[in-house]
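Final paragraph of the annual report: two paired records, presented back to back.
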Amino acid sequence: MAPLLAVGVTATLVPALAPTQASAAEPLTRFANQKPAWHRCDASLPAAFQCATIKVPLDYSRPGAKTIKLAISRVKTSVPGKRHGVLLFNPGGPGGEGLDMPVMAKDMLPKKVREQYDLIGFDPRGVGRSSPVTCGLTNAEQNFEHPYRAEKFNRDVKWARTVADKCRAKNGDRLPYITTRNTARDMDVIRAVLGEKKLSYLGYSYGTYLGAVYAQMFPERTDRFVLDSAVDPARVWRGMIQVWAEGTEPAFTRWTKWTAQRHRTYKLGDTPAKVKKTFWDLVARADRTPVDDGGEKFTGDDIRAALRPMFYSPKDAAEAVVSLKKAARGHAGHPLRSSVPARPQAPRWSAAAAQPPADNGTAAFWSVVCGDTGAWPHDPEQYRRDAIRDKAKYPLYGDFGSNITPCAFWDQPAEPVTAVDNNVGLLTVQNQWDSQTPLVSGLGMHRALKGSRLVYVKGGEGHGVYGGDPRACADRTVNAYLSTGRLPARDVTCKPPVSPGRGLNQHIVPTPPHTPGVPRF
């Protein structure tokens, strides 16, 4: 294949815009013809890890107007003769920084894959080093987990309105354009700037939706796409927060059965019903008197929120409940926060590197999930009714998932939400027990992408599959596809690896329990 920015490769760039905006195509060629000034990303990082900045339109329907900066990175293949093209990464979010992904992937991808691609990272628009947005939010304002309580609902409404107002005031005319559709267009500018006719891609979590939107908008430029731990396009975005409640109930039921079978070890009950009662008794006790767990006070609502993602791994949840029970009796245990497995360390930029605003991830998250779709209700009473209904239907998290968010007070989106419904051939990957994008969500993406093949890890736990163990069935299937471009003849069901590793996206998501902040897909 042609080397990066090769002479003779036409960097075409035709935007996916409405017919009335078709005249924007010609001015966009100036963005396709940019020549990135590649340089070493940071003196503290490997010299092969290169960075550059390009410009993209803020509003693609007006490419001659305001522009924003997009930070991109690369690690070039060391074997140009085997090069197939570029492999672009997104680690999840919305709001996840992806500039460091190539240097992480270089150490985790198998040689037969790594040698075929220049590995490309980028911070999506509004994120990290790509013209970052900020709403000037306090730590308390960044905490999104608001359980429904009748006496606190007016405060929740005030919080949601305050966040929306702050984001609008801080970002002005930029806010309507921090969207998935525009990030997909940015990806196509990156493709064109790199001199590539097609784009290969590995996206996790939110990155699966971003990849699916790109495939919908630019099907002829979609090459080898892997969507790992998928968002259901039909549920963006309120439904993807609500699906956490729906998905957690079967995980909780599984946990009660698993734990009852190990009563001698955990002493939480020798039947599923008794285990369930133990948990809810603990929640009730913490609501009366918060549990001091390593200096951190947990109410019953805190316990519900903190353990929600942990129930997808029964052993982790059982150990956490045992520890909290000890703490409730005044005995020291292992603090809940310390029970979260450590993530692989992302490359560390030097202190001299420009840092994004403290609330950048939160600001970018709400910008995308509120700005992508106008389907959010605007009547606070609708959220109240939904939270009451879903707390009864999904006791663990239903009221959290359906309570009011800043999107209730957001301006109408600049564009309609993307309907994902195509026959592009690509690969989706999904664990059965995924806390952030539950199985029902991954299956929804697979249905929407009619030309896709699904790699389903039956019994698999955790958010993010690929990149943990090159010997595992799922990794082997993905590696074969990235190496050859050939999809499996049919969907593939895999067993979980004996010793699951940590996938490429695990330095970003999921958010550790009881850490105030924003949800991550």
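The closing record of the year follows.
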Amino acid sequence: MKLRSVIIAVCCLFALTGRADEGMWMLGNLNKQTRQVMKELGLQMPADKLYNPKRPSLKDAVVSFGGFCSGVVVSEDGLVFTNHHCGFSSIQQHSSVEHDYLKDGFVARSYSEELPNPELYVRFLLRQEDVTKRVLAAVNPEMSEAERSSAVDSVMLAIGEEVSHKDSTLIGIVDAYYGGNEFWLSVYRDYNDVRLVFAPPSSVGKFGWDTDNWEWPRHTGDFSVFRIYADKHNRPADYSPDNVPYHPDYVAPISLDGYREGSFCMTLGYPGSTERYLSSFGIEEMMNNSNQAQIEVRGIKQAIWKREMDNRDSIRIKYASKYDESSNYWKNSIGVNQAIRKLHVLDKKRAMEQELRRWIQQTPAEREQLLQLFSELELNYKSRREPNRAQAYFVESFLNGPELVQLALAILNFDFEGEEKAVVASLKAIVEKYANLDLGIDKEVFTAMLKEYRSKVDSVYLPEVYETIAAEYGGNEQAYVDSLYARSELTTPRGLKRFLEQDSTYQIYDDPAITLGIDLITKFFEMNIQMQQASTGIVRGERLLNAAVRRMYASRNFYPDANFSMRLSFGTVCGYAPFDGAEYDYYTTTKGVLEKARKHVGDVDFEVEPEILSLLSSGDFGRYADKKGEMNVCFISNNDITGGNSGSAMFNARGELLGLAFDGNWEAMSSDILYEPKMQRTIGVDVRYILFMIEKYGKAGNLIQELKIKS
């Protein structure tokens, strides 16, 4: 047996027995058992260097980036590394046909050239606190599920508001864990002045595009660089030319030593959401409804967008960010459904649930309370099956479909009476959405969405607009859409301006797009009401199921599902065998970039600028080369991550930065609902490749000098 095959086998065996690499752990609740396993795997840092609410620690270098990604602070002057796809929207907003930063990349040579992004913020975690007793003190056994939910929500909100009342620069958020059985307070501080500093060309940052997305081997330099700014006292401040670079409490050191197979690796970031404790009934619903709707509806919309993006540079720039976001979740849904079937996830869930049924029946105290748990869960999921499916297609066809509809709904939900800062930000978001709207493309999308939705649902779930189309347009969706866009003032800058300026002569509710929006909202809430009783029962049943599993396996070390709060995952750098006869190595090099570029000549997903090809072909990688003189591009570990972890710092045993997590692998797309130790891998971009691109391609040696590099 080859040595590397042995290492892969050992890696997988350890995962199956100790399961040390499974879990997204809360730093504020990192128990002794977890710390011990980390130490056994190779961690060389004490726990109080990872998380310490009173002194600077590694968690102070990790940020939530914009609320949808993660990032890591790498300089005393507030530089932040995150993924290219996390910064993609900001890069797109600054791009034009004349200054195409998506295609050509961007580098700021001085502070004055760094580009502000008013919609961006970074969030630092200060501390976490268990508030379960205080929250559940408001609950009593006689409460209905709705009463319980209301009481819990009130206390959670009050605890969070107490934080801001004591210090207006802080934000307190109480989250529910373990299906609503535990509650933790996280205290954050946000910085709202975040500026773009460096972005590689998309041929680096998005190399492989949709073709390689969620795939291994990968050769994508998925990184971008931003800088946090603060006022002169280093406090949070809205954008101002007078702001200065933020000086962080902790800066992540960078390692040039790299890694080898079996090296300890940990990831710190803000994963979005997982459903590891969801019942088999819930998984089936997810597969057949929300995932399938995304697959079918987004595929139609994206095909229209892509055709026009390929034909016109102006459309490519306008639509790049929204296409990227849409297609990412589209391909994810495809992979999740395939992985659930291939890895027999439902069978594994049902086997666990059967064990739980037996335990409940054999345990008198449990039998008395939970004898009907599974039958009630099954009945409630069955009761809402059809309206839930219709609503999934409704959301994709309309709420995530035509941008005119999204604009109308944003206007309907707008609150001019809110806090001034929030009002200004919301107005700006509406203006930006309109600026990136091409009416011809949107009309084609809308027509396609109307047809697709009608073909997928029962007539009882059709909103009133379909009666209008039948009665006034002879059932012709295209004729209705043409008329709607011609009659709505929201399709013109003048009409939008009248709304934004609250023109009293403009009766917004008479606009046909707004009327349509009201029709759609009404139908959406009708579906919610139809599902309300079943949904309430499902929330209760899933909460009781979660608690019962933890009682049955009381000796196990349970981690909570991800929920956008900071989490630590850990494991080892490790290859894997995706199928019989194949073994995947744990890293890729620039040789793969050159090979793919040659193999896919003429394919825009793999086009690379001649200057970059020349740079990579030279083999002159300097101190960023590995011991063989090669340049590593990406690597994989069995760390446990999910969406939101994009941009997360990947550290070695000493807490030094190895790279940035940016993707998972296709074979384990069901990881949000079940961790698969043999297959699940985190894909990261090597920090040495990042530094090489900044210094050699971007010629931004000034940025390199800011970094704390360990060689």
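The first strand starts at residue 62 and ends at 65. This concludes the annual technical report; the extension proposal builds directly on these records.
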